Amino acid sequence: MFDRIAYYKSRCAELDLSEVPQSYVGGEFVSGTGAMIALEDPYSRTVLAEYPDCGAETANRACEAAAVAQKVWMTDFTAAGRGIVMQKIAALVDERQETLAQVEAVVSGKPLRDCRVEVAKVSEMFRYYAGYTDKLHGQVIPVPSGHLNYTIREPLGVIFQITPWNAPMFTAGWQIAPAMACGNGVVLKPSELTPVTSIALATICEDAGTPAGLINVLAGLGPTAGEAAIAHDATRKVVFVGSPATGRVVATSAGKALKPVVLELGGKSANIVFEDADLKAACKGAQAAIFATAGQSCVAGSRLLVQASIKDKFVKMVADGMEQLKVGDPLDEATEIGPISNRRQFDHVTAMVDQAAKNGAKVLSGDRTKGDALIVPPTILTDLPPEADAAQTEIFGPVVAALSFVDEADAVRIANSTDFGLAGAVWTNNVSLAHRMAGNVRAGTFWVNGYKAIHVSTPFGGSRSSGFGRSSGTDVLMEYTEPKSVWVETAEVPRVAFGYAPSE
Prior knowledge:
- Helices cover 39% and strands 19% of the residues.
- It has a seven-stranded mixed β-sheet, with helices on both faces. Strands 9-8-7-10-11-19 form a six-stranded mixed β-sheet, with helices on both faces.
- It is globular and about 80 Å long.
- Helix 1 packs antiparallel against helix 4, helix 4 packs across helix 5 and helix 5 runs parallel beside helix 6.
- The chain is built from 16 helices and 20 strands.
- By secondary structure, it is an alpha/beta fold.
- The longest helix is centred in the first third of the chain and has 21 residues.
- Helix 9 links the parallel strand 10 and strand 11.
- The termini are far apart.
């Protein structure tokens, strides 16, 4: 029988990590002393390790270490030198890609082939932002008084970042790389359920040459470590990726401490199919939009809006296609859909499906009995109104609500009927219609005849219950820096606040 614990331990050893997660603070591994946390493989339900919460004291140490290292990063390294270090980080991630992907797969339950792609994207993130370290220019402003006035962009200092369990290393890289490029120090708190690859990324940063303490990772809980890091005087900004409910808690805590925040929250994105679309392409796109990564994606196309004239035909196409998807062990090279990442989320997903069925929805789904594995098969909910809970609430699993619309106006109305504003898509051969939909559907990211194309070079974020701020592209460089305006007196007779100084 395959020994998953031995597999996990051996991969941790390859990364020079203890199988028992420890915080990484100031260049050292630090054991916690708080409540015990179980690290569970969601497929076999094997407890891989148990570790203690790092607590508030370790969080405070991390903030202090980041503040010290950030000054070294900005004074002992040139801007170009910082870029060179970030290129080295990317190279080391590439060298360790397979091991990192294997650890990610066993801990998070995400299929191994998906983990390989996400680790590769992390190296791409560091390469992309490495090119910006020496391009954060200010400007000279021709003010009417005749002064020389110029601006410079300065790093904020210490950034506290909280990342989720659905894509641990991907979201760690997505946050860390631009913050580093702008000259900041980082304290990262990954989900306590999936901290391992984030810790590995911090050690890789130091192996590449960052000052000890520039990147710190807390293995612990939000109410203890998270709250302490938000409140610490060195923390200048808070970034949170996760659920709207927890995002409100984080934003409230940050607000009390007068710390600005960037929130990447949930979505209930509309994937809209018109009758003139290429239905085969739209069918494949609809499956990828919701079933990839077991639907555990903030941009998942969890509402499938199909024009009424083709709804039954199209839903049958999606249902027939989903039966061909390989569901199972994330370490199996053939697996396309793995388990839900943790028991709490599994219970939420299954409860939402059960409640929808009780409320009259028709459930199209495969076998839901997979032993102890936290497997939810691809599922379609039909015959429910747009205002139904399952069509309004983020399920965050491989479950799509199939709804019908009459015309363009009806599609826009239904698409905008939730409190989210993260993503959306339209499938049509009518170019004018596609552009109108892109303009009228409330979304930070919108696709035309495609779904889930995302790249580090373009801005990502949402509105309303999907959060605010942007976490990628050049927009994020503004999130992680602040402008300073410098005024230089150039007149022979210095000016004073009210006119000119009197001559002698």
